[in-house]
Amino acid sequence: MRTITLLGATGSIGTSALDVVARHPGRYRIHALTAQSNAAALAELAARHDASVAVIGDVRREGELRDALRARGSNCVARSGPTALAEVAQAPEVDTVLAAIVGAAGLMPTLAAAQSGKRLLLANKEAIVCAGSLLMAAIREAGGELLPVDSEHNAIHQCLAGSNDEQRGQARLVLTASGGPFLNRLDLAGVTPDEACAHPNWVMGRKISVDSATLMNKGLEVIEASWLFGMPAERIDVVIHPQSVIHSMVEFPDGSVLAQLGSPDMRTPLAYALAWPDRVESGANRLDFKRLGALTFEAPDLARFPCLSFAYRALRAGGATSAVLNAANEVAVEAFLERRLPFIRIAPTIEQVLDEYQPEPAATVDDLLEIDSLARECAARAVAEHA
Ligand code: NDP
Questions:
Q1: What is the 99 CA–ligand 1 centroid distance (Å)?
Q2: Which of 25, 193, 270, 373 is most buried (CB neighbours < 10 A)?
Q3: Is 18 helix (H, G, I), strand (E, B) or coil?
Q4: How do residues 32-51 score in pLDDT, each as one tens digit?
């Protein structure tokens, strides 16, 4: 029996994870579920999954959460705020934490879970992009485990199973990318938030959907892969694969390429990470190879989607540059979703921040939070110029 805290329970990843958990009564127990502002949905999930604690990030909504739990006859304890988020990630009765908050907002509770030696199932890619060195050190020092949930990294984790350090040291990673909703649309001038969020293969939260449309999502994943698998930028490639059937690949020195395939459904990587090293039913549809048709591949168009090259630039620059990239992207995407910034100005906004702000390396979390905050100020100014 594994006891779980699920950070970001009301989101796309959170609800998919709870679907997998509910398929295996007796195998998992939910200790805590969290959300930011959606108190009604959080109370409903907490009552349904018999959670002991529900935490709402926005402290003004704790009363609403408590009332909603009471209305459902639940004994679940309602809490709120950042301290409560970190505490449920570190609770002694918990052995597994799923980090599925969106954005750098998930960094502190994710780090708290790592520092207390939990098995960390990582979906919150922005946390590792911003704080890769601190997060990996915390896992090492506390003796915890990290299992990637992002489908590409989850695929690579599966492909690397059974290889030794020497083989990994010479391997090359190939991350697949669907290309997003605008792979074949040449005029991106009037793109609306709903168009950018209409992903052809995956149903996801709005922020990651926009990141997929700009290819920044793949850029963040390149940085994530570098931290997770200890790979330099030169040994991480990206290939466009519009069908999203191959979730990523590893090429070994003898020329062999191992790939992981599956239908595009996050319950598969979630089930893998939840059950590892076992395998459990996920609920995802099986691939039907007789109906699949062609699997195609092409190079990413960096002129149309420059965000991918910004991520390589940040990774090569090192230090806290990836945190600056992430902060600039979060600010630009939020402005786009709020219709304050055109889609085609997202990339120039981010590039301007990278040109203007080259931070010192961050030795501590406080350094990192300060860099994140300064990068957001710089990005807000850039958004105003590009609006
Ligand atoms: P969603 O937007 O669907 O869900 C985000 C979750 O985080 C919600 O529970 C939300 O609560 C909570 N949240 C939002 N802001 C805060 C905050 N400031 N503090 C605390 N909690 C917060 O996102 P996704 O599920 O799509 O993505 C989650 C993470 O997983 C992202 O990092 C994404 O990149 C990654 N990921 C997602 C995939 C997908 O298929 N969706 C695939 C691979 C990775 P509330 O509902 O109250 O707002």
A1: 9
A2: 270
A3: helix
A4: 999 999 999 999 999 999 99
The helix/strand/coil state of 364 is coil
Pocket (CB within 6 angstroms of ligand 1): 8-14, 35-38, 57, 100-102, 105, 123-126, 150, 202, 204-205, 207-208, 266
Give the nearest ligand 1 atom to 39 CA.
47
Residue 311, both tokens: 């991520």
The token pair that represents 129 in the structure block: 């992009």
Bond into 277 cis (ω within 30): yes
Give one DSSP letter per residue of 294-318, joined into a string: ----B---TTT-THHHHHHHHHHH-
- Tokens representing residue 164 in the block: 């030794």
Task: Determine the atom of ligand 1 nearest the C-alpha atom of 37.
Answer: 47
Determine the distance separating the centroid of ligand 1 and the alpha carbon of 24, expressed in angstroms: 23
The percent of residues above 90 in pLDDT, for the chain, comes to 97
Q: Which residue has the tokens 């979390």?
A: 365
CB 279 within 8 A of CB 272: yes
The pTM of the full predicted model, rounded to 2 decimals, is 0.98
Ligand 1 mean position to 126 CA, how many Å? 11
State whether residue 161 is helix, strand or coil. coil
